[in-house]
Amino acid sequence: MKEVYKELRAQYKELPTFSSINKEFRIGSMGHSPFPFDALIKRILNQFEALKNLLQPIVEPDTNSMLGMYEHSSTSEEHRIACTEMYKTISYLERVLQASALSRDKQRQTVAIIEATRAHEKIRKALVPYLEHFADVWLEDHGSQSQPDYLG
I need a surface site. Which of 5, 31, 58, 131 has the fewest CB within 10 A? Predict the structure, then answer.
């Protein structure tokens, strides 16, 4: 993929460097694709989906999930708002990427990939302290609650 990406970048000079996009989306391990833009967008969408899955228990906890209930009840409103904003940004970028993929417009896809790469780095770095907090929550003793907090 490295050579294919270099060829793409030669055509679309605005694309991030290989090292930058590889750092964010691990594209170096991707095989050859006859449609490299589609493959890149698919890889980026998969990464965004993984981030959304990490945020889901806080943003919209499943009341049938111990993970969701425990982490949600141990999270401040300020942290919930920050996580929701990250979730919204990811959802926006997913739609931008999907629209660019369907358009088959290489320039539009280039712009979407650039925007997604920049945002992914910021979100990835911002998410780390929250995940560390959620990990610590599992080590704390919150006592047993017979009735969980109301989530409505």
Answer: 31
Query: Is the CA virtual torsion 19, 20, 22, 24 positive or negative?
Result: positive
Return the pLDDT at 75.
Answer: 83
Give how many domains the chain has, as a whole number: 1
H-helix segments, the chain: 2-11, 18-25, 36-59, 66-73, 77-103, 106-137
pLDDT, tens only, 28-51 = 887 777 788 898 999 999 999 999
41: closest CA among 92, 127, 119, 117? 117
Q: What is the residue range of 78's domain? A: 35-137
122 assigned to some structural domain? yes
Angle at 19 between CA 26 and CA 108, to 5 degrees: 80
- Minimal CA–CA distance to 49: which of 109, 90, 84, 20? 90
pLDDT at residue 149 tops 80 = no
Residue type present at position 148: P
